[in-house]
Amino acid sequence: MTITITAFERSPDGGKGLARDTRVRWALEEAGRPYEVRLVSFKAMKEPAHLALHPFGQIPTYEEGGLALFETGAIVFHIAERHGGLLPDDADARARAIMWMFAALNSVEPAILDLVIAKFVEGDKPWSKERLPLVVDRIRDRLRQLSARLGDADWLDGGFSAGDLMMVSVLLRLKPSGILGEFPSLAAYVARGEARPAYKRAFAAQLAVNTAG
Ligand code: GTB
Hints:
The chain is α+β, with helices and mostly antiparallel strands. The protein has helices spanning 21-31, 42-45, 48-51, 72-82, 91-120, 128-150, 162-172, 184-195, 197-211; strands spanning 3-8, 36-40, 61-64, 67-70. It folds into 2 domains: 3-86 and 198-211, Glutaredoxin; 91-196, Glutathione S-transferase Yfyf (Class Pi), Chain A, domain 2 (Up-down Bundle).
């Protein structure tokens, strides 16, 4: 069955791979599944046809036969469940990999998104300068904790899993801020994710879209 995802017609990051279609592309590449991409403009995202797929008018979405999904957590989990390579066979290890997916989305990503909001949405507010250090400190706390848990392991729990895919994807958003560089083991962890052939293919595919004439 053909898999179709949606992505920005033009990502505001110009192809740095920070938009969330990259993590879905990455999961599909890890799973060895071909996919098609329907590009949507910001305007089309808020129109009925796209809203029928995504109630919040966002990308990415995922369609496969009669199934339509939104939310990258659900999409990556679906891909990981249906295909090999992203979740361990052992039931306990599988549960832990899923736990790390949730941890990435619920315990790490919100702090990082707060920084994006503080800089790009609230940056012109009179209180913004005062708030920013608090936001950055919350991220540092989380990264310190995550770094302590990772230790000198390559991945969060044994071999690479969907948990790492999601955690690396979330941490990548920090790259432009320089905060990741304060945690060398996490920076190396992210670099290991980026070095995976499947990630490279996913990154190249989104870059091609965003740099096409
Ligand atoms: N929780 C949802 C999920 O995980 O799928 C969040 C989806 C989401 O935020 N989608 C964003 C979107 O469609 C794109 S990824 N935004 C348009 C809108 O809401 O109108 C967020 C994003 C956007 C841009 C950059 N960038 O340019 O660096 C990075 C990430």
